Amino acid sequence: MKRKLEKARVETDDRSDNSGAPSVGGTLEALLEELGEREEVYGEALKRVISWGIENARKERALTKSAMASKIGTSRTQIERILDPRNVTISLDTLEKAARAVGKRLKIELVDA
User: Fold this and answer.
1) Is 0.85 topped by the overall pTM?
2) Domains of the chain listed by start with CATH number
3) Sign of CA pseudo-dihedral 19, 25, 30, 35
4) Which of 1, 45, 73, 108 shows its CA 20 to 30 Å from the CA of 91?
5) What is the pLDDT of residues 80-89, one digit of tens each?
6) Does the CA dihedral 22-26-29-35 come out positive or negative?
């Protein structure tokens, strides 16, 4: 990705913020789209948010990872995978079970792009 970022075209534009300094071209979203990495980054960001929420709820309830695993009928290793923010291969069903184990529910919303 670093090499792709180096090759990415960044344009300056005449707009400026309150400091009077010129701003640098488009949005992060536009850059990610240009690099073809937007979906990957969004997927990882969403997983990070979900993992963070489940982990916080687990800690608030003083629930160990082993106890959480028992509640949803899986292994502690699988709980580690669920809570790993970089692991985006976890199914929605598994995330829903993890959320319920910590007293939450997963809410997914479809919105306009």
Assistant:
1) no
2) 38-101 (1.10.260)
3) negative
4) 1
5) 999 999 898 9
6) negative
